[in-house]
Amino acid sequence: MASPLSCILLECAKAIEGGRLDVADSLLAVIQSLASKEESIWRRKVVKYFAEALVRRAYRIRPPWPSPSLPLLSHTTQYMYEPFYEFAATTSKHAIADALNSGYKRLHIIDFSIMFNFWQWKYLIGDLERQYGGLQSVLITSIEPKLSKHTYYVRQNRELAELSNFELRQLTFNSPDDIVNCISKLRRKREDEIVVVNWNFTLHKLLAQDGAMEQVLSKVKDLGADIMVIVEQEANLNSHVLSERLEQSFQYYSHVFESLEKLYDRDELWELYFRRQIGNVVACERVDRVERIESFAQWQNRLSQVGFCPVPQQVDEFKISLRFYFDEYGIEEKEGHNILLSWHGYPVAVASVWKVTDPPQFSSGE
Questions:
Q1: What is the per-residue pLDDT across 305-359, written as a single tens digit (0 to 9) for each?
Q2: How far apart are CA 213 and CA 223, in angstroms?
Q3: 0.85 surpassed by pTM
Q4: How would you classify residue 345: left for phi > 0, otherwise alpha for psi between -120 and 50, otherwise beta?
Q5: Domain 75-235+294-356's class?
Q6: Cα 60 to Cα 36: distance, rounded to the nearest angstrom
Q7: Which of 274, 113, 120, 111 is nearest to 200 (CA)?
Q8: CA-CA to 167 of 20 to 30 Å: which in 266, 297, 331, 360?
Q9: pLDDT (tens digit, 9 = 90+) per residue, 21-56?
Q10: Could you give the CA distance from residue 257 to residue 11 in angstroms, rounded to a whole number?
Q11: Residue extents of the structural domains in the chain
Q12: HSE-CB for 233 with a 13 A CA cutoff
């Protein structure tokens, strides 16, 4: 954080931490003046959203972010996550295809994503059925955030699924405790069923509630899930100290906004989503701070301790699949078993696949 604006933002955060709101107000006025003179559109936006979050934190403005969890509920929402969306979808596709090489006849996908994309799964399942002619049935259990106007969205997905060749079960959550309850209801019914648990930018939300992560991972093991796919933002934005968290997150979101500004000049959906993330990271504490983003090294340590081991990934397959979506983004293999997405060398997201070290044995199916 070497720029004058970033340094002033940091000083403002420290003033708010110390309860010196008069100093914070003066610094915010300086930030507003300097930001308006920035030539870069993406930098003006990042500074604006961090200043906005600091104001909401200082004066306890509720809600602490100005936009809903997801701004729109339609098929176009997928573009909010470009390139994150395509990166996550490609990870799931390759992981499931590799698992089906074992000769399974039935597939159960448990999908924890920020949004459920019916068409993504329909196309993927169509490809899998053509590739594996013996695939007899597919069940997708979608578990996603409960949103305003969600009823229409759920009904639309259900109607589309009825016209397709797979079964769709939809569950929603409002909190980490809801995620625990949702996964506790799931059962593995057959011995010839492959179970895939898919986390797209949602697993980190369990960190907001003590014990939730451990409960969910324990249930994944009890289910005998064959693989668990995890795609998360690659950053450590979970410091207990506001000034440290702001310093780390400003650097991260500056790179994210720069990349998206260059590639998707007129797409506002991603902007709303990351604006909300910044608001939560900076303005919230305790259980209200659900965006507890951690690095892959931290995830690897946590998952290894509770009995999961990584599955090797092939970076060349990713590059082939994503060659139409990425130019200036880098895709590289890290440590032999995860795929890193970076912008001009700066990590922004990471994909990994896991399996239980000692999966439970099933003596018979139903």
A1: 999 999 998 888 788 877 766 777 889 998 878 999 999 899 999 999 999 887 5
A2: 15
A3: yes
A4: left
A5: alpha beta
A6: 25
A7: 113
A8: 360
A9: 999 999 999 998 988 888 888 888 899 999 999 999
A10: 22
A11: 4-67+241-288, 75-235+294-356
A12: 22
